[in-house]
Design a protein that fits this description.
The structure is a single chain. It contains nine helices and 27 strands. The chain is about 25% helix and about 35% strand. The chain starts with a helix and ends in a 5-residue tail after the last strand. A hairpin with a 3-residue loop joins strand 2 and strand 3. The strands form five sheets. A seven-stranded antiparallel β-sheet has the order 5-4-1-2-3-7-6. It has a six-stranded antiparallel barrel with strand order 8-9-10-13-12-11.
């Protein structure tokens, strides 16, 4: 009896232990599930708090910029000078304080030709602003207000940005002060048109962070609260596509803008373009490398050194250059007044020049070069000899070449951007001055051959390759 009782006690003990074990498993599972549900929430809460902290920290250094520009107008259908009126044209944008003594960084287009500038701080204080430096090429400007001990931003390193990283914009869209939006870096190195002048802004940061009119000039921030860009442009009617100037570009210009009122740029003095396989073939190059000189500016460092139109620049200070952007970067990295060794290929021979780098005399970039396009299979051109009347009308420096009178839609010439009024100075590296010379050259070409044209347009020259086809 005692033995049976002992077994019964042990069995109850085992059942109790098993029950406790399963209850403990259930408790652990419940706690684990609750933990898994809590961790994402805590992560999101941490990000949310970080963004709120950034807005709280950086917000006081972001300013509202209101401008007034007096514009001369004349009412329609009235030629009487008395109908002219001077009316105020208002504008708005954003900016951010980079120095406690009242220096504000913004976009040049925000304050362009402004007769009056009002700066409003986040605490409501208002100041008159004065543009002390501006640069159209980089679309940056410095505005000064008479104040001190102001909150400032921290300038970061835009080169470290990665596509997909979170960024934050603070600005005053539509006059709504201190608006904070968040998104990601959508792309880097974007190029977009700069207005209607044909110039191009390069190396922009693309972001889906909401940017609206009034945001221009405000900061684009990384998750550390550092300024990595200047919000600059939007594409009308597009959603989630905004652009910002990389802050590293602005950082290079700040001292010049404050001390000189402008940005000094190193200058070679050439119009340049890519070397395509077709151009390489025409110039007798073994491969499509280097940068083609489409024109040399009169009185420039390049001209003084002896460089010529048609030279292919392959190296600067022993470093290869294979695109216009690479050449621009190399030249900009050389101090004005310093000498640079530039290696070119001319007529199959390598030649070296020592060029004393100058200061760019205009607001135009030396790199506004013609963009190459995809070829079609026709030339599609009609031309006639340039007369003195045509030369005068087109403001040509001399009576020379052939003027394009018609470009057939869909042809290779059309695809490459040729247009009526362009003047052909040369074809396949031979001067063209008569219709007979033109027809003599065309008749020697085979279908599929490349015709390399030297064009004159807008007071400069550049090369354009087009494909030829047998005329049916």
């Amino acid at each position: 009896m005692m033995k049976m009782k002992s077994v019964k006690i042990n069995r109850n003990f085992v059942l109790a232990a098993v029950l406790v074990f399963f209850l403990s498993l259930s408790w652990v599972s419940t706690v684990s599930a609750e933990t898994e549900q809590t961790e994402p929430y805590l992560a999101l809460e941490s990000i949310s708090n970080s963004i709120a902290d950034i807005a709280e920290k950086v917000g006081p250094a972001v300013v509202n910029i209101d401008t007034v520009r007096m514009v001369n107008t004349q009412f329609p259908f009235f030629e009487d000078p008395r109908s002219r009126r001077i009316i105020p044209q208002k504008g708005a944008g954003s900016g951010f304080i980079i120095n406690q003594e009242g220096y504000i960084l913004t976009n040049e287009h925000v304050v362009r030709k402004a007769d009056k500038i009002k700066i409003t701080l986040s605490d409501g204080r208002e100041f008159d602003g004065e543009v002390i430096g501006s640069d159209v090429t980089s679309d940056t400007a410095i505005v000064k207000i008479q104040a001190d001990h102001l909150p400032t931003v921290t300038l970061g390193d835009s080169d470290k940005l990665r596509v997909g990283q979170i960024v934050i914009a603070i600005g005053n869209p539509y006059g709504l002060q201190q608006t904070v939006t968040m998104g990601v870096v959508s792309a880097k190195g974007r190029s977009i048109p700069a207005g209607t002048g044909g110039s191009i802004y390069r190396n922009f940061i693309q972001t889906d962070t909401a940017i609206n009119p009034g945001n221009s000039g405000g900061p684009l921030l990384n998750i550390g609260g550092e300024v990595v860009g200047i919000n600059t442009a939007i594409i009308p009617y597009a959603q989630g596509i905004g652009f910002a100037i990389p802050v590293n570009i602005a950082k290079r210009n700040i001292d010049d803008l404050i001390n000189l009122g402008k940005v000094r740029r190193s200058w070679l003095g050439v119009y340049i373009q890519d070397v395509t396989p077709e151009i390489a073939e025409q110039f007798g190059l073994s491969e499509a490398k280097g940068v083609l000189v489409g024109d040399v500016i009169e009185g420039s460092p390049a001209e003084e050194a002896g460089m010529e139109r048609g030279d292919v620049i392959v190296k600067v200070n022993d470093e290869e250059v294979n695109s216009p952007e690479e050449l621009q970067d190399k030249i900009r990295g050389i101090e004005i007044g310093k000498k640079a060794n530039v290696e070119i290929v001319r007529n199959g021979k390598e030649i070296s020049f020592v060029v004393k780098i100058g200061e760019m005399p205009t607001l135009e970039e030396e790199g506004e070069y013609p963009k190459e396009k995809v070829f079609s299979v026709q030339t599609g051109l009609k031309v006639e000899a340039v007369t003195s009347e045509i030369a005068k009308k087109l403001e040509l420096p001399r009576v020379e070449g052939l003027v394009i009178t018609e470009v057939i839609p869909g042809s290779s010439a059309d695809d490459m951007g040729l247009q009526s009024g362009d003047v052909i100075l040369g074809a396949n590296r031979m001067e063209m001055s008569s219709i007979d010379e033109w027809e003599g050259l065309i008749n020697k070409l085979e279908p599929g051959d490349t015709l390399l044209l030297l064009l004159f347009r807008n007071q400069r020259t550049y090369y354009v390759p087009i494909k030829v086809e047998k005329i049916d």
